[in-house]
Amino acid sequence: MQQTLTGIAASAGVAIAKAFVHEEPTFNIERLNIENVEDEIGRLQDALSVSKQELSAIRDKAEAELGADKAEIFSAHLLVLSDPELVDSVSDKIKSDGQNAEFALNEVANMFITMFENMDNEYMRERAADIRDVTKRVLGHLLGIEARSLATLVEETIVIADDLTPSDTAQLNPVFVKGFATNVGGRTSHSAIMSRSLEIPAVVGTKEVTTQVKTGMMVIVDGLDGQVIIEPTEAQLTEYRKKKADYDKQKEEWAKLVLESTVSKDGEHVELAANIGTPKDLDGVIGNGAEAIGLYRTEFLYMGRDNLPTEDEQFEAYKEVVERMENKPVVIRTLDIGGDKELPYLDLPKELNPFLGFRAIRLCLEEQGIFRTQLRALLRASAFGNLKIMFPMIATMEELRQAKQMLQEEKDNLLADGIEISEQIEVGIMVEIPSTAVAADLFAKEVDFFSIGTNDLIQYTMAADRMNERVSYLYQPYHPAILRLVKMVIDAAHKQGKWAGMCGEMAGDEIAIPLLLGLGLDEFSMSATSILPARSQILSLSKTELSQFAEEMLQLSTADEVEQQVREQFINA
């Protein structure tokens, strides 16, 4: 019987195909008393070893096809498999209690999962999901249960699941998997982010899709409007085939804009830039016509390894990016690591609230050896292109001045050694803390640019963890309070003759773009796949007309009111 479910549009597009319901294997785990402890620990080590080989292969595939930042989750999974707190605890149970490996692993894993799930921050909850995903893989090998890999699907299919783990999503072949729909998840979940990179239409958070769909049923996934149509009528099939054709045609039109500059209808140019994690992401950036790199997340150089990257390793990575961008601007953010992004080789304290803790510039100003090494690598690479340096999570003027002083000291040292450095290195800050936005007029006198990090700015301003489903309704990019902070930052920059960009998710959002253009944003930095749709949209908008509109939006009371006005006047018009 025909039925329509509503969820969250996680990845744009329309998919029409028969469903494949992906079910997690059932593990019947019994406690067995074992006699040969060494053999049992050998079984555990064998299962861990095979799991590591599989995850390494998945990571390599994800890095090649999705980019290094999407593959980083699998480096985290590999670290879980090597974590002595987990592995040694399982071995100890086998030795001391004579437990079989699968029972001991399940007991220890569930203890960690429960502990992490009850902690009130995003990073720890993600750790719980990581441990659950990895444990299932190891248990499968111990019990001889092999779940069907989604990589083996060889006919056009829409995958239906309660949730898709990162390793599930990374194995989807877009040739055969036309879309997916899940019970849980949001736009910022790992599976949603990966689906956008794969350009597979996806709807998440439907709550009940697995109970309503059976394998073989015809399903439509509308990733534009967030709907799943189960057993559609002929009329609906006709309607959605047209919707799919229209969207595919639209994508072809966008592709024609690759070499175009981004100019509004009234002739105002803005810069469309891309966010990247490593040099391997550049193919997608160049292929989608980015005019700059607005955010190079350097922390990926430090993750998934056992030691700090050397100055030369960093220099080569930064040099490759600035050279391949052929003198287009490249904004490189200094190390943004800390409580929420662990490095196993740094003995950082566990924190109850890592997003408000010892991270980013706070860590770098204390761990000066790490910071100065990176600054030297950046300065050396500046001679090969248009490199700009950006400090993250600046909260006070003292932090900015100390970071700039260390940069100047390293510059003087390199010049004294006869090493060439660009004479035109702009230095800016990420504006992601509300106090910095409020004091933007003061900061604007001491920086060359601002880049607004809306992902954190929104959750700090609204006091709401965007990964916490119970308060996720407060993650409101269009809230007048957020728009007012954005305006304060842009106006402060312009008053000092400086430029202001944005590198959060909001920069590529079709609702936000008219508002940001009207508020005077100079640079929009986003995922590479969002650049062409954003360019197409901006070409149709008048910045002059939007200036008055944006001012009016600042006077509204709610995010819903703002969104409704934008949709009526610029999206659905």
Short description:
The protein has 22 helices and 16 strands. It is of the alpha/beta class. The chain folds into 3 domains: 3-24 and 149-233, Glucose Oxidase, domain 1 (3-Layer(bba) Sandwich), CATH 3.50.30; 37-143, Enzyme I, Chain A, domain 2, CATH 1.10.274; 265-571, Phosphoenolpyruvate-binding domains (TIM Barrel, Alpha-Beta Barrel).
Strand content: 5-15%
The whole-angstrom Rg is 25 Å
Q: How much helical structure, as a percent, in the residues?
A: 40-55%
CATH superfamily of the largest domain: Phosphoenolpyruvate-binding domains
Total domains, how many?
A: 3
Number of strands: 16
The helix tally amounts to: 22
What is the CATH C level class of the largest domain, in words? Alpha Beta
Structural class based on helices, strands and sheet pairing: alpha/beta
Distance between termini? 34 Å
Shape: globular
Largest sheet: 8 strands, mixed
The strands making up the biggest β-sheet line up spatially as 1-8-7-3-4-5-6-2
Low-confidence parts, pLDDT < 50 over ≥5 residues? Answer: none
